[in-house]
Specification:
Length: 651
């Protein structure tokens, strides 16, 4: 069993910090026990001038030190439009990406060549008020749109309350430089990352995704054109693409080493995954924070139409319209209308539309070192995105590390963690970060603990069985494998108006089935992806099925740890809907969202089954019936120490 190592010192915060909460000033040159990286900076001597001294980064404790100016007045800011090889708005001209460069004056006066910290986003220009899809209807029902363009009949989404926009436009590791606010050239896009990385010798580039802000093209919610647009910025930084200023003059990026690290949160973190999956030369590192690895898994789950947490009724077309902030409000309408048709909210099937937006397909092309960051309680971009991406990178030997915290959407690793990563892979300074423990996890008490890898290598799938309750009361979750005999059937009556938390808390209910372990005599740690295998029949041709993993405290209060969903019509494949014959039993095997969680001694571990999940699934009228054969249904939990550890703790 691999042993964790607790990290001493302050705990990295999971709450966002204001862009004005920053460190001020910079360290002086000549730090004790520091080293300069020879050969990085070349001198540039103007005609008739004395040779300027060579400048370069300074490293201490394996990190680039803030030895350059933190005053925005000393920085150079440039605005460029980078030409891409795609015409996604169909106007007969290649789309151009609007970008802003912030770099040190030494790149102009002293020959400094800087690596680049790069963030691409569709959110810099804000969002549009848009209407979500109506979700209060029968399953497999195609709804007619309301009057007006893209009137979907659902709730209105207000950009002011969008946590994704807030998370993506807030520098969570540290804020913009408050001491420089209002001085020097003002940004057209963002100041995020500048106060952290310019004083350490990096340049920072912000770029607006196609269809947003001052960029051309159309938004397509993870479509290939968006990947190409973001990739073209790296091509320009490496001399493979052209860029122009506001009056059409060509601009070259002669000031950079060409080594790029992408970073961002939410959509801004998803674009690094997308670009890395192209294998583009020059992208050396990425830090995807709360990032999507497959857009199908953002808006669907095992054939079911499942919303991101907090965004009930949203889909690919809604998000594209939301970020469609370029000045021309007509040119992309047909593109967004095609998204609405192709996404298929009726069957929920995986299709060519979603396959184009699945970065897992091309994970074999990734060579950039990947530092994944994700909140264990992020129900917007669910943990499956981080887990499947990370697992695939591990399997292919890509340099990797993962940071998991107790927060929700967003939450960056600390500046020191990021600095070690970028120092190693952008500056090329060998600080040994690749030999560090691979997993940094914020535990339930908010302490940071290092582990050799994630999921915990000592975790083993532990099969648990379901013993029925009586009169709607909870049954038993047990490791007893000796039960035999005739099928024992329990029934769920769907009521989509009741929230999962209410059903998990209920002592009895016809709208859910619950199975609880004994009172734990010791802690039980879950690390990985829970799964269920259910034998179910249905009283109608369509139904939602939802599974919850729950922690019940000493007072019986339920805390939902993770959950999963399936459409029984996709029981064999997420790509194919097959009819359900009422009364016929079917096998449903599906996953819950990955997690790392410690069930405390004195608590009980529970599994709760229900049909519709108010906050996530389509919400049909109440009354549908689902029957579970408990003798042929199991739960598989990745428990550290395996079955023996569960048996020892299960009172």
């Amino acid at each position: 069993m691999s042993m964790p190592r607790q990290v001493t010192g302050p705990v990295a915060p999971t709450a966002f910090r204001s862009p004005k909460s920053v460190r001020r000033g910079a360290a002086a040159l000549g730090l004790a026990a520091s080293m300069t990286l020879a050969g990085i900076a070349a001198t540039s001597t103007p005609v008739g001038a004395a040779a300027a001294p060579s400048v370069g980064p300074v490293f201490s404790d394996g990190m680039a030190q803030p030895v350059f100016s933190s005053n925005r007045n000393d920085w150079i800011r440039e605005e460029v439009w980078i030409e891409t090889p795609v015409d996604s708005d169909g106007d007969g001209r290649n789309d151009r990406v609007h970008a802003e460069v912030t770099r040190l004056r030494e790149t102009e006066t002293a020959g400094l060549k800087s690596p680049v910290v790069y963030e691409a986003s569709p959110y810099y220009a804000g969002g549009n008020p848009v209407t979500n899809h109506n979700v209060d209807h029968e399953l497999n029902q195609a709804l007619r749109p309301g009057k007006g363009w893209m009137n979907r009949g659902g709730s209105l989404k207000d950009p002011a309350s969008d946590e994704r926009l807030n998370a993506a436009t807030t520098d969570t590791a540290d804020g913009a430089d408050a001491s420089a606010a209002g001085t020097g050239p003002q940004p057209a896009i963002s100041t995020s990352h500048e106060s952290n990385w310019l004083p350490r010798g990096f340049a920072v580039v912000h770029a607006e995704s196609l269809g947003s802000g001052k960029s051309d093209g159309c938004p397509t919610t993870g479509g290939r054109n968006e990947t190409i647009g973001a990739t073209s910025v790296i091509d320009w930084l490496n001399g493979r693409a052209k860029a122009y200023d506001a009056i059409g003059r060509e601009v070259d990026a002669t000031w950079t080493t060409g080594k790029v690290g992408m970073i961002g949160t939410s959509y801004n973190g998803t674009l690094p995954n997308a670009v890395a999956s192209t294998g583009v030369d020059g992208l050396e590192a990425i830090v995807p924070i709360s990032a999507i690895s497959s857009w199908y898994d953002y808006y669907r789950a095992n054939g079911a139409v499942v919303a991101p947490g907090g965004y009930q009724g949203e889909d690919a077309d809604v998000l594209a319209e939301y970020v469609y902030t370029r000045a021309d409000k007509q040119i992309c309408r047909s593109v967004i209308e095609e998204l609405a048709k192709a996404q298929d909210r009726v069957t929920g099937d995986y299709s060519a539309f979603w396959d184009e937006r699945n970065y897992m397909n091309d994970v074999g092309r990734v060579h950039a070192a990947v530092l994944v960051a994700h909140g264990l309680n992020d129900w917007n971009v669910k943990t499956k995105h981080a887990a499947q991406w990370y697992e695939a990178l591990k399997a292919r030997g890509v340099p990797h590390k993962i940071y998991l915290h107790q927060g929700g959407h967003g939450g960056s690793p600390s500046v020191n963690v990021l600095n070690r990563w970028f120092t190693r892979y952008l500056w090329g300074y060998e600080n040994g970060v690749e030999n560090d423990p691979r997993a940094l996890i914020q535990r339930e008490d908010r302490t940071l603990v290092e582990y050799p890898e994630w999921p915990e290598p000592a975790a083993a799938d532990t099969e648990l069985n379901l013993a029925p309750g009586t009169n709607g009361a909870a049954g038993v979750l047990t490791d007893d494998k000796t039960r035999q005999g005739k099928p024992v059937t329990e029934t769920i009556v769907d009521d989509a108006s009741k929230r999962a938390q209410t059903l998990a808390d209920a002592a009895t209910s016809p709208n859910r089935l619950a199975y609880l372990s004994g009172t734990l005599t010791g802690a039980v740690r879950l690390s990985g992806t829970p799964r269920v295998s259910l034998r179910m029949s249905f009283g109608q041709p369509a139904a939602n099925v939802t599974a919850l993993l729950v922690d019940y405290d000493q007072n019986g209060k339920a805390k939902i740890i993770t959950r999963g969903w399936v459409d029984p019509q996709n029981r064999k494949s997420i790509s194919r809907t097959e009819p359900v014959k009422p009364g016929t039993p079917y096998r449903l095997d599906f996953d819950l969202q990955p997690h790392d969680y410690v069930f405390a001694a004195g608590h009980r571990l529970g599994v709760v089954l229900l049909s519709s999940d108010y906050d996530y699934t389509i919400r049909p009228a109440p009354g549908a019936t689902l029957s579970l054969d408990t003798t042929k249904s199991t739960v598989m939990l990745p428990i550290v120490g395996g079955a023996a550890a569960f048996a020892a703790a299960n009172g």
